[in-house]
Amino acid sequence: MAPAVRGIGFGQCICTVIVLSIYASVMALTIRYFLASFGDPLPWSLCKAEWNTTCVDSSLKMGNFSGANAKSSAELFFIKDILKEANSIENGLGVPNWQLVVCLIVAWCIIGLVLIRGIQSSGKVAYFLAIFPYIVLIILLIRSVTLEGAINGILYFIIPDLNKMFDAELWYAAVTQVFYALGICFGSIIMYSSYNRFDQNVYRDVNIITTMDYMTSLLAGLIIFGILGHLAHVMGIEDIQQVTTSFMGLAFIAYPEAISKFDYIPQFFAIVFFLMLFSFCIGSNMGMANCILTTIRDRYPKIMCWKIVLAIVVFGIMIGIFYTTPGGQYLINLLDFYGASFVALILAIIELITVSWIYGVDRFCRDIEFMLKRKTSAYWRICWKFITPFIMISILLYFLATWKALTYQGQEYSTGMHMFGWCISLLGLLQLPLWMIYAIYKQTHETIIQRIKAAFKPNKNWGPCDHEISKFLCWKKVEHYK
């Protein structure tokens, strides 16, 4: 489409590698919790003396406990037993947790096997995987909203705080959350779309997926904040934000908190929930891992698939081991910002400008019309060309203008860690100028101006892979220009 900005794709692949390594560590935590779910009672439902801090049993359904520094047993189990999290990383990341290392290896082995064998399932299995998570979430919703104090958390969730509308971090977090939720701007969606039929009705697919994603996020939010409202009630805390500040608290603190309050066989619901979370992890990881695999195989088709998969798995385990240390969450928070969300936002803006302005909205809409046999409305044209680029650029500039140093759990990172983070960002962002120079150099025109212009124009082979469709498209273009 525009060879000069090929660096977008390479930069997004680097982001995908980082996010994949983080998601694989989440998958390892899911396996660890799944194994812990067979305990009776559930290990996170009761406080332990060795934690040596003010603790409230997560199995309590009501209480009049009061304590500003109190934490639930579910949170302390996650921080002290699972992560063994350090108070700071001034003395290094620490020694890896062998239990999490084993779970990480198992997680990557599963990813590798699925990559090699591929995902093949019957229609009934596909329907089950699509419906099963919603059954679990609805059960958890019913339980969470019936807890004492849950309404306070839900109201906190749905009533907006207008004072924060001018907070740059809020808008930045909202944009990057959309990236993660929909999987856009990381390359996975483009990779999957390459397997579509040429006339696949992506207009319908996009509307279904975005609507379902929004409703699922709303459903999950109601569950989470219902539980947080209950925790605030039990602990005697008025501010919901003070209940939990853990980076991964949503999945591994709030949901186990709700499950521990089930009266009957909470172990069964814990097992079912973490199976559901495991299936989510498989889906997310497979999309990103396949993106990397497809990128390498398209560029080096002679390399056998299993060799590439083995390299991805070994590299993923080597990186993931750092996440299993007591300082692992500090590192994940750093890489998630500098190597993923920040870079992804900038690359998304460049990608949007490339399609809307360099390639051109009109040309892009003609392509869509040729593929889908339907015209693109003015709404989409205006959004793609003006509204969305303006909003995203404004958010980025506002965020940079009000820049605040990255922190984790209220602690600032050292200068060396910030420098390391910026090096990771540059690794992704420098792909743009490097590949732009390469694209200009590869042009055969005489003057530099002609080379630059040619580098921003589509290649001669740009178009459908099917030769018959390409011939028809060329004829249509001739008729258009006539």
From TrEMBL:
<keyword id="KW-0029">Amino-acid transport</keyword>
<feature type="transmembrane region" description="Helical">
    <location>
        <begin position="171"/>
        <end position="193"/>
    </location>
</feature>
<comment type="function">
    <text>Unusual broad substrate spectrum amino acid:sodium cotransporter that promotes absorption of the D isomers of essential amino acids. Neutral amino acids are the preferred substrates, especially methionine and phenylalanine.</text>
</comment>
<feature type="transmembrane region" description="Helical">
    <location>
        <begin position="304"/>
        <end position="325"/>
    </location>
</feature>
<keyword id="KW-1015">Disulfide bond</keyword>
<dbReference type="Pfam" id="PF00209">
    <property type="entry name" value="SNF"/>
</dbReference>
<feature type="transmembrane region" description="Helical">
    <location>
        <begin position="264"/>
        <end position="283"/>
    </location>
</feature>
<dbReference type="GO" id="GO:0005283">
    <property type="term" value="F:amino acid:sodium symporter activity"/>
</dbReference>
<feature type="transmembrane region" description="Helical">
    <location>
        <begin position="12"/>
        <end position="35"/>
    </location>
</feature>
<keyword id="KW-0813">Transport</keyword>
<keyword id="KW-1133">Transmembrane helix</keyword>
<feature type="transmembrane region" description="Helical">
    <location>
        <begin position="382"/>
        <end position="399"/>
    </location>
</feature>
<dbReference type="GO" id="GO:0046872">
    <property type="term" value="F:metal ion binding"/>
</dbReference>
<dbReference type="GO" id="GO:0005886">
    <property type="term" value="C:plasma membrane"/>
</dbReference>
<feature type="transmembrane region" description="Helical">
    <location>
        <begin position="98"/>
        <end position="116"/>
    </location>
</feature>
<keyword id="KW-0479">Metal-binding</keyword>
<dbReference type="InterPro" id="IPR000175">
    <property type="entry name" value="Na/ntran_symport"/>
</dbReference>
<feature type="disulfide bond">
    <location>
        <begin position="47"/>
        <end position="55"/>
    </location>
</feature>
<keyword id="KW-0812">Transmembrane</keyword>
<keyword id="KW-0769">Symport</keyword>
<dbReference type="InterPro" id="IPR037272">
    <property type="entry name" value="SNS_sf"/>
</dbReference>
<feature type="transmembrane region" description="Helical">
    <location>
        <begin position="128"/>
        <end position="159"/>
    </location>
</feature>
<feature type="transmembrane region" description="Helical">
    <location>
        <begin position="214"/>
        <end position="232"/>
    </location>
</feature>
<dbReference type="GO" id="GO:0089718">
    <property type="term" value="P:amino acid import across plasma membrane"/>
</dbReference>
<keyword id="KW-0406">Ion transport</keyword>
<protein>
    <recommendedName>
        <fullName>Sodium-dependent nutrient amino acid transporter 1</fullName>
    </recommendedName>
</protein>
<dbReference type="GO" id="GO:0015179">
    <property type="term" value="F:L-amino acid transmembrane transporter activity"/>
</dbReference>
<comment type="similarity">
    <text>Belongs to the sodium:neurotransmitter symporter (SNF) (TC 2.A.22) family.</text>
</comment>
<keyword id="KW-0325">Glycoprotein</keyword>
<keyword id="KW-0915">Sodium</keyword>
<feature type="transmembrane region" description="Helical">
    <location>
        <begin position="419"/>
        <end position="441"/>
    </location>
</feature>
<keyword id="KW-0472">Membrane</keyword>
<keyword id="KW-0739">Sodium transport</keyword>
<feature type="binding site">
    <location>
        <position position="284"/>
    </location>
    <ligand>
        <name>Na(+)</name>
    </ligand>
</feature>
<feature type="transmembrane region" description="Helical">
    <location>
        <begin position="337"/>
        <end position="361"/>
    </location>
</feature>
